[in-house]
Specification:
alpha+beta, 60s Ribosomal Protein L30, Chain: A
């Protein structure tokens, strides 16, 4: 009998509280923005990347990636223009920090490729620093052969994987 009364009381309280739900707002909030290239209030241009974002970086520079010859880490002449476009963007946003990722193709040992990837990332960092970007804004990381962009065991795939990629982090 006590269980029946307790159950009925609990059911009555639950029904009473269910009727006290929150009222719908008079105006709904705007829908969430979709992805990094969502409309930008600062520029007023729908689909324009947010200034200073990774999407803005990629849209503004020649490329976020430079490539290297086999077993090399010196910056090639054609990639100097790419890095100079990155210098210009980084000069425009002096508060932004970047990470340069060093990558290698699948050939060679894991340890060898990690060391080579580090040298490649540091070569790109040194170039940016030599052209006015404060070195304290640049970190480096080597992924060796662990993050290929092209799958395959041919010269075309290997050439795409021998790279340094600049990524904004702040």
């Amino acid at each position: 009998m006590n269980r029946l009364i307790a159950t009925l009381t609990a059911s009555g309280i639950a029904l009473a509280l269910a009727g006290c739900g929150a009222k719908a707002p008079k105006q709904l909030p705007p829908p969430p923005q979709q992805g990094p290239s969502a409309s930008n209030e600062d520029t007023g241009q729908p689909g324009a990347p947010v200034p200073g974002s990774q999407a803005d970086f990629v849209a503004s520079v020649m490329s976020d990636t430079i490539h290297f010859d086999t077993d090399k880490y010196d910056v090639l002449a054609q990639d100097q223009q790419v890095l100079m476009s990155q210098v210009a963007w980084l000069s425009k946003y002096p508060g932004k920090r970047v990470t340069i990722e060093g990558h290698c193709d699948e050939r060679g040992t894991r340890d060898y490729n990690l060391a080579l990837g580090e040298r490649r990332a540091n070569a790109a960092k040194s170039y940016l620093a030599a052209h006015g970007v404060d070195a304290s804004r640049i970190t480096t990381v080597s992924y060796g052969k662990e993050r290929p962009v092209a799958m395959g065991s041919d010269e075309g795939s290997w050439a795409k994987n021998r790279r340094a990629v600049t990524v904004t982090i702040q």
